[in-house]
Amino acid sequence: MRLTVTLDEAIELERLIASCYEILSGISENSISEELKKLSREEKSHISVLKTGKNYVFRAPDAFGDERVSDIEIRLGQKVAADLFDDLEAGKTNFRQGLKRLYDLEKKFERVHMNTAVEFKDPSLKKLFETLALADAEHRKRLERLIAVVPAPSFTDPI
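The chain above was modelled as a monomer; its predicted structure follows.
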């Protein structure tokens, strides 16, 4: 079933985003570091939610309608997250830029989850993905607060 591929792609995207939060937590101040670690843990819990949805595909395939988001869109998100991860590991992006790029990812996938990725016939599955969208919105708001307290780099700061 094609839906399982899409869900696998979404799981990988969540894993990549969690890894980006982990890297940023390692290069930040203690108070910000704790918030980023918490965001990483929450992304990992999103993986569990998506795995639950994937298990549901096998147990109750009639609960699903047509896909609304292609796995191509999710793979594009994976590419953006993987590029960010690589740039953070290589020191090619600074802390504030990393936060901003994660913010952009959260904003995009808030909309993807709100569109529910698939049209669910089962209300509990619809609720599952609405919950992911709400979590992404909350992550975006928390990142806005973090970005606001992190000073913009000066021209002499390394990228």
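The two ends are 44 Å apart (CA to CA).
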